[in-house]
Amino acid sequence: MEVSLSGPKVIVAKLKDSKVKRLGFSAPGFGYSGSNFVDLGRKCRVNWVGLKAIRAQVAVEKNNAPFRKEKVQSQTPVELLVGLPLDTVSKSNTINHEKAISAGLRALKLLGAYGVELPVFWAVVQPNSPHEFDWSAYLAVADMARCAGLRLRVSLNLNGCHRPNVMFPGWVLQAAETDPDILFKDKSGALHKDCLSFAVDELPVLQGRKPVDVFESLFRSFSSTFKDYFGSTITEITVSLGANGELRYPSFPPTTDSEFTSVGEFQCYDKYTLSQLKQAAESAGNPLWGLGGPHDASKYDESPNNSNFFKDHGGSWNTPYGNFFLSWYSQQLLHHGDRLLSIASNVFGDLPVQLSAKVPLLHHWHEMSSRPAELTAGFYNCAERDGYDAVTEMFAKYNCMMIIPGMDELGSNPESLLHQIKQACEKHGVQVSGENSALVKQGTDNFGKIKENVQAGLKTFTYQRMGADFFSPEHWPLFREFVRGMERSQLDADDLPEGNGGGVSLSADSEAGNNREMQAA
Amino acid sequence: MSIVRWKPLIHQLPLVRNPSLSLREQPKRYIRCCPKNPSLSSSAGFVLGSKPDSGRNLRPIVEAKAAQSPPLSQETDLISSEQFTVNRIKKTYGKVSVKLERRCGYEARWMLEVSCDLVGKWILHWGVSYCDNQAEWDQPPPEMIPPGSTVIKDYAIESPLNARSEGQSESAVQIEIDGDTPIGAINFVLKEEETGRWYHNKGRDFRVPLRGSSEDEITLSMKQSVSIWPEAFDQISNMLRKHEESDPAPAPILEDNSDTSSKKPIIAFHEDYTVIKEEPVQNSMTVTVRKSDKSSDKNIVDVDTDIPGHVVLHWGVYMNESKNWHVPPPPYPPATKVLRKSALQTLLEKKSLGLGNRGSFALNKEVKGLVFVLKLDEYTWVNNMGKDFVVPIENSTSGHEEKIEEKPGTVSSTDKSVDTGAAPYTENLISGIRNLVDDISSHKNKAQKTNEEQDNILHEIEKLVVEAYRIFKNSSVVEKPDKSVDDTSTTPTQLVVSSGTGNGHEILCQGFNWESHKSGRWYHELGEKAKLLAELGFSIVWLPPPTESVSPEGYMPTDLYNLNSKYGNIEELKDIVHKFREVGIKVLGDVVLNHRCATSCSENGIWNIFGGRLNWDARAIVADDPHFQGKGNKSSGDNFHAAPNIDHSQEFVRTDIKEWLCYLRKEVGYDGWRLDFVRGFWGGYVKDYLEASQPYFAVGEYWDSLSYTYGEMDYNQNAHRQRIIDWINATNGTAGAFDVTTKGILHSVLERCEYWRLSDEKAKPPGVLGWWPSRAVTFIENHDTGSTQGHWRFPAGKEMQGYAYILTHPGTPSVFFDHVFCFQEEIRRLISLRLRKKIHCRSTVKILKAEKDVYAAEIDGKVAMKIGPGFYEPERGPKNWTVAAEGADYKVWEAS
């Protein structure tokens, strides 16, 4: 290693060995596919936060030396990622709080994180027309991650988001103004302004283009813009398959977001969905079933116990009509997912990246036989019917990894639902990754739960998400201890530090001295 | 070359009349020195060998930080000089003297004098008690109040101690007492105003009994003066209060019974208490490295400090970058001890006038640096911000490159070209990277990877994190998540893993009422409702007291380890805890620590021998409870008269209780505690218990009366909530407390239709939840106030208004068992709203209306509520408000 002062304000550090041991979350060395010589000779400029115009140029070179001892471990360690702020890139396509993110990336790297997740919003990339793309700010973020030596999981959000308030691109909103029915509509006629109806996927509703085509060109543009990053920096692409970036209907009230924990409502009242329902009912030989969604389902916040549709005993979910409607409703979701995954795997299939998509963990009300919260979101997963089998099969078909949020949720409901989904994944050979639903601000139980889930065989785990709260003195120490705790549980015996003040053998000592002399030479 | 930096302003020794640094006397051994330099009287030289040994980590308790080094351009042979600031605690012993004597020349006038011979602005915080056995505080009659006093609370007076004469450190205050006064005793504590520290008597008030009522009283006061155990307060970090008995106090002298009044005569009283004032003192320490002018292969290290007393340098050297401690082979310099081959201890030479210490060492050139800490006495170590002091030694040939490699985190004075603000930071970054790389490259001997290197990386990470936090926080672009941080006082305790306050979003259910014991299978019955309670949204359930008890309800415990009660046996208890766990509800155990019922009589027929595994005797009972002839110390709180009050000042009692709580945590699986009658003993003990048992959530019952004037409740209940907050403070915030103030105020509000009471003078909620919301457990009813006892029943028919208030407001709401079923749907809706809108114990309240017949508030901008018959509707505006719940005289909206 060489460190030299090339002037009072510029320090150049050449690290012969940039092999950074990740504390616990992955094996030593760079475990990604592709070149062994990433960043070779590449110089990246890092603005050290907090220094008055001090720049450090760090040239990172990959160690040419033959691979050292590989650790033999029974299972691949989980790769830890941390989500970047949702507003990392602003609506006007600039990076928000760049310095903070840059310091944060460095800290995460030193702590041993594998990478970060970057949320990409459609409205930022294509603000003006379906023909123009602006990836500049996202490219800059990818560069920051690359300089920090972190991998990147890119989430392509095709829906809007309430926090930060990033909705659809203006031209999509205009299309929705002329024809509000391209958006999801609930029973009372309220529109979901952040989610296109699944029924218009293949209808030319966006300036004469089909949404699927628009998405495909978006994917292609992403693929060509970031071609230098795939495999090395970008290792995973997550495609949003519905509301909140998850495979689901927006069954929550139009003005809230994923924090909604009640049952919700069926979303099938836009004219395109209604017409598809009508067709389905007619071909099922019962046209009366096609007039609308269940009339006796509960309102967003109502207890499902009081609703005729969802109640455990004698609820209409468990009737031929219920079966018809729920099958059709969940099938529409699957078709939508299939369409998007098919496009994505078509575009990204040959890249050295993992394709993934999110499936929500709708554990609220899971204890009821009807599983009402899952039904309204589009998972026909009642007491005696496995709604996740078909979903997982679809993931398997496109070799898509499944990301399940809610790894921090405590209680028996999340546990049993998670178990069910994982079993389906195992059956179909689908890899599972995890996320948490919320920052763990207090107490140790949630981190304990995450740890438990992570150790139960996740491919990666993404902790959501970076921001002021994440780095706050209330939260950061907990997170750091969580990461270090993971490290301890995954270290080999010879990795464990010697006890405090324990004697270091003379031979080891003198050898260390030699090493250093050689390095200094 | 030694640089001596004096900090006379901070270093206050000469001002103290009776100073005594708590330094252990050391055998007088000095470094034998030979003259070396005109400015240095002497230096000791010795040569270091090259066979190193490993060092050990020390955990000193005093910290220091490196200061910018002074420029030393005039010295040609100077290599580097570094000055450290050393923060340590100075202890000063002093005497508080309490004298009660007849005033000269007046037959019926008495004078109480409290004096203190320590420098400082001392304040006597005092009150009187009219009845002998109570530790009550009352306002004294106005003629007793010395001039210059202020009335602090409605039960205390603060009188400053005035210097006896100009320039003298001793100060005193006199209180005149009428011989006929009905006052039984005077209670006080001392406050030092400059440091804001309180000086208690073993965590309790100092107490001056005016009249010895019997032989008992005298022995009591004698006993109190002798039985002192200062170690109990080592754990109280915030307030430093130590008292030791200096001289045996003269026995109180019985006055001649010449007083003709019917009252017992006033008895003269004189006692001295030792106080230790501990204050942070800043000293400096300079370490200079220079070339030896004699031989070229040696460097001289001079150490110079203004720390007075004996200073022992506990040191080692390092030969490479790992900075492991090594000890050279002999010969050692004089006055040096070898500590098990891991470090050397050298007593520094005292400078003339006793104003500091210094030493000088010659080290040969292979040595890359000196590592050391200072030892001031057996218990006092000084380190450098939690790390060893590191003084790198460079050879003059080395350039910048090497310097940076070798001494991360330190600044060399010769390194002037580097921008001062940025340089250490950059160096740290580089060193962080370097350490990381070193860390990785040392693959062959992982054992070499020391904790120190890991610490460096972690240190680096923390720096970056602080930076990131600062920018994120100040970034106006970020749409802030709805979270209030007004509760800054609790921030430090939140860092503790077990703050005893849950996750902030807790909702409590009291899982029993006064009749629950009757079926004999309550655990079973309640267990069946676990799922319902979970579904309603409760996160914590409070179970009845689990132990064997004289009364069936469980509040008169006997054998603490017998967990078979009228509610069910231990197996059923474990079963119900398990059931609640399964549905995600935490479980609080109701622990009665204030009192315990005896199982047998002592020889003289008093019930004060305890049975079961904790077979305590009269020593465990407080001395001021006449019914049970306790032989312990006096109570640190109020007495519960129906059963022997436990003396928590006894160490064996505390040890037993801690063990018991841990047993309950482990064996039964309780997640936390509801602490019964905590008025009965000092909150500091509770802190001790909670730290030992690490509960997830803990809440204490501190229930005393609100203030009333002519039967009408006062608007201002600040004194009442202050008493509850004082208790929480005494527990160091490890526990919350039931918000009795809010309940009391709600009573008046609802009974008299006076909703204006719900806004205090600062337009905040008037209860504990207005002052310390994260520690307030709000409730409207419990097994004592309501149920079949009805000691203080919530206004009938208005319960839902109460719940509409507490379930929408900050604090941790608690719902009484009976109400869960009486008002199930209404409560379900409110809880669901609270969870949906993520209202938590620190949410912010904006009071919109507090009028005669209506109270309205907005919480976190997400929930609006009103109670009372009057009109309120949220404004139509940017927020779209929809009704989330409504009922008799209440309505709640949510913003969508």
TrEMBL record, chain A:
One of its GO terms (molecular function) is beta-amylase activity. It catalyses: Hydrolysis of (1->4)-alpha-D-glucosidic linkages in polysaccharides so as to remove successive maltose units from the non-reducing ends of the chains. Residues 492-521 are annotated as: Disordered. The active site is at E246 (proton donor), E435 (proton acceptor). Belongs to the glycosyl hydrolase 14 family. GO terms for biological process: polysaccharide catabolic process. Its EC number is 3.2.1.2. This is Beta-amylase. Residues 512-521 have a biased composition (Polar residues). Keywords: Carbohydrate metabolism, Glycosidase, Hydrolase, Polysaccharide degradation.
TrEMBL record, chain B:
SMART domains: Aamy (SM00642), Alpha-amyl_C2 (SM00810). It comes from the Eukaryota. GO terms for molecular function: alpha-amylase activity; calcium ion binding. Its EC number is 3.2.1.1. It catalyses: Endohydrolysis of (1->4)-alpha-D-glucosidic linkages in polysaccharides containing three or more (1->4)-alpha-linked D-glucose units. It holds the Pfam family Ig_N_CWD1. SUPFAM superfamilies: (Trans)glycosidases, Glycosyl hydrolase domain. InterPro entries: A-amylase_bs_C, Alpha_amylase, GH, GH13_cat_dom, Glyco_hydro_b, GWD-like_N_Ig. Belongs to the glycosyl hydrolase 13 family. This is Alpha-amylase. The lineage of its organism: Eukaryota, Viridiplantae, Streptophyta, Embryophyta, Tracheophyta.
